[in-house]
Amino acid sequence: MESFALNFTGMMLALTVVIAIAWLALRLLRRRLQPGPKAGPGAGAALRFVRALPVGPKERVVIVEHRGERWMLGVTAGGINTIAHWPEESDLPAAGARRVVDTQARG
User: Fold this and answer.
1) Which of 11, 36, 49, 80 has the smallest set of CB atoms within 10 Å of its CB?
2) Distance between CA 30 and CA 33 in Å, rounded?
């Protein structure tokens, strides 16, 4: 009986240590992989999704922002192509898109 109690206690202690190590590893991974504000030279280097418009079953037009510049990309099953690029100091793409829609509506 004494042997069983010692074995059971040792097994429970080992299980507790393994669970504690797994919890600590998951917590460290979550902290490391979680996006958040960064300081340093790469602080503004994040790619930010702005909007997507599906134009077919597997095709879409996507607007993303990178370092203050906006990019309109055509995304298909075969690849990604640049459609338009707006530098940081220019107007937002929505204003240009409105002008195109307005001229099409009048014509």
Assistant:
1) 36
2) 5
